[in-house]
Amino acid sequence: MKRIITMMMLATLAGCGDDTAPATSTAAPERAAVVPSTQVPATDSWIGRWLGPEGLFLDIRANAEGGEGHYVLTIKSDLDGQAEFVGQADGETIRFVRGGAQQTIRPGKGVETGFKWLADKSNCLIIRSGQEGYCR
């Protein structure tokens, strides 16, 4: 009797599958998870205050509204006052518009600033070589 029941169960299970039909799937194909970039722009290391001679400065802040690689620049480039600009990372520079002209902030040495007070510095940002630069 046990043998008959076992044979019936095997026959029932054998009839459940169809080996001749191709396997098809209606499930969506798996996709790799999109991982947000964790690479920080090199220019983010410039955030903070950079000093020039006689109280001049360049202040770089992250611009949360613009997103990664966007900055708010406060520049006091003369003794008459300071102005604020919006800048954007472009490789190892920050680009911004001042007075209708495209300007670029790039890394450099103190001697490139054009100021003898900064000539011995090695960690500087240059806007106009020989005319405008700031160091830490």
Automatic annotation (TrEMBL):
What is the protein named? Lipoprotein
